[in-house]
Amino acid sequence: MARLLDRMLAPFPEHRPAAGAVAAELRSMQRPLPRGLWAALGATAMLLLTLGGYGLLNRGVVADLVKERPARVAILPVENRSGDPTLEAELRWVLPDGLGSALRTSPRLVPLLAETLPSQDASSALAAARKVGADLILASTLRKTPKGEWALAYTLQDRTGAVRHQGLVRAGGGPDALLQALPRAAGVDLLKAVDPFLNGEKRENAVQLPPQVLRAYALGRERMDRGQFQEARDHLSQACNQAPQFATAAVHYGICLQKLGEPGSELAIQWGRWAARAAGNRRAEIQALTQLGLLFMERGQWDASWTTFDEAMRLAQTTRDEDFQSAILNNLGYLALERKRFVEAEEHLHRALKIQQRLGKTDDEVLTLNNLAVLAKQRGEYANASRHYQRVLEAVRISGDRWAESLAENNLGDVALAQGAFQEAAQRFEASLRIKREIGHKVGTIIPLANLGILARVQGNAGAAEQRFQEALDLCREMKRKPLEPVILWHWGALDLSRKKPAEALRHFQEAATLQAHLQDDEGRAQSLAGWAEALLTQDTRSPRAEALLKEARTLSPECLFVLRAEAELARRQNRPEAARTLLEQALARAVKIAPEEVPDLKARLAR
Fold first, then answer.
1. Which of 147, 170, 194 is the last residue of a domain?
2. How does DSSP assign 106-134, residue by residue?
3. Does 88 map to a domain?
4. Which of 262, 258, 221, 261 is nearest to 238 (CA)?
5. How many angstroms separate the first and last alpha carbons of the chain?
6. DSSP 483
7. Contacts of 91 (CB under 8 A, 6+ apart)
8. Is residue 396 situated within a structural domain?
């Protein structure tokens, strides 16, 4: 009987824990006592009758889709046929969120809210499903009845287009009825169709919010989606001021501050995290933790970033949220890349890609491919990196994500620079910079500015390089982007060395080395110490301090090409030409693999 019970409950994994207790009781009754036998038979008969009714009448409209895992439901933006064009933002961001909150009550469903969709103009339900890896699509239409009521018609269909459920709910004509009562009523009807035996549990996001707060939030999200972070910040600030308990608004307000490089972003995101926890909104809590991890990573706070991502991952695993699991793995992969832990990075990124491919999340695959391209480039696999970046660029142009388009342009420019295609690199960097300025992403301009400076340095255009470095460095300091500062300072020091300005080079390399020690960037610090040593040798051929710096640099990164180059310079000044040549040849061999833009300088040194 216990085995029969297991088989009958196979399509209903969410009810297995309770059934396990019944099965255990049945097994305990295996004794040669008439009373135990009759009790077992009586219990089994009642259970079979119950399960029979459940199986015949109450399987729910998606029972066939949830045998192995919960079904993923893409909630499309609500189509507006109400005659009121001012409702577009609410129909994209507020109503889908209300529907998702209701559906998340069922263990059979994983709602994918409107924010996971790349745009609100999906050409078809099937196309939308492919983009987010959904099993089901919930499409809704809003109308106004002749009596002035709101009417929401909705259709739940699978990826083949087969309709699983249709419904229609009405509510009064006020804004509160539109934004809260209407999605709540639709959610109740959908839950009855999907999971008939579900008990009425308290839903997340049960906090009642004034219509003006929800409108401000919707307008803020709409502006964020367009890359208009300044306007978004103002709307979201209004929502947070009027409803401090609105966790999702607080998190997105913090994201806007982060994008704009303004103070207070960490405080806002932390506030959203605790508000989400108080409301039982696990999804918003995971989102807040993930965003905090990104913020710490941008600041170079590696340990804090890893700890926060780890906490977010454990929460995502507890709630079985695979969407966030793949996103967090992607972020952990990028964090490992920043710390030069390539094996660890590859492991995280391939785990993320495996989840995304299994779920069919093509948009998220693009982000992971981008990070795998970064990994390929750092390993010297330029053709592979360029191929990944080009796929990313094509995909984001189709989706209309301008921020991601700017990132892809910059990364393609980086590969072109490494391959010596300077004209293409300049075009890519300029395109990236232009897009970032057009969408108001001030922080994002730092990297293309720095890359334009590096390109100018490699081409021997010292004036242009210095101008770009100064602009990028000023932005870094204004917005507290510590990890980028030493990179810019090192290249500026290299520029000073080429211009025979050892005092300026010394200052830049010293500052870079100090920052890299704080960031625990051993390889970067080795490069800066090597540059520092070269600057000292330019001033004093027999500098003991230069030898000590090179000894420390060798300890940190013995195969660093810039350490090899500095050691060659020391050997040359010590009248050891054969040793100098050997070291330069080793440095040149490494440069060909990992930094082709440095090859011309090394060849010139060998020719001396």
1. 194
2. STTEEEE-GGGSS-S--S-HHHHHHHHT-
3. yes
4. 221
5. 89
6. G
7. 77, 78, 79, 80, 142
8. no
DSSP codes, 533-598: HHHHHHH-TT-HHHHHHHHHHHHH-TT-HHHHHHHHHHHHHTT-HHHHHHHHHHHHHHHHHH-GGG
- C-alpha–C-alpha distance, residues 305 and 275, integer Å: 21
pLDDT tens digits, one per residue of 161-200? 889 999 999 988 788 888 888 888 998 899 888 887 665 4
Query: What is the rounded distance in angstroms from the CA atom of residue 74 to the CA atom of residue 114?
Result: 8
Domain membership of residue 49 as a residue range = 2-59
Helices (H), 400-459: 402-418, 422-438, 446-459
519 closest CA partner among 485, 491, 560: 485
Furthest CA-CA distance within the chain: 103
pLDDT digits over 553-590, tens only?
999 988 888 999 999 999 998 899 999 999 999 988 88
**Is residue 303 domain-resident?**
no
Domain assignment present for 438: no
Q: Specify the CATH number for the domain of residue 185.
A: 3.40.50.10070
Assigned token pair, 242: 């009027």
Q: CA separation (Å) from 352 to 53, 222, 291, 572?
A: 41, 28, 17, 49
Query: Which CATH number characterizes residue 514's domain?
Result: 1.25.40
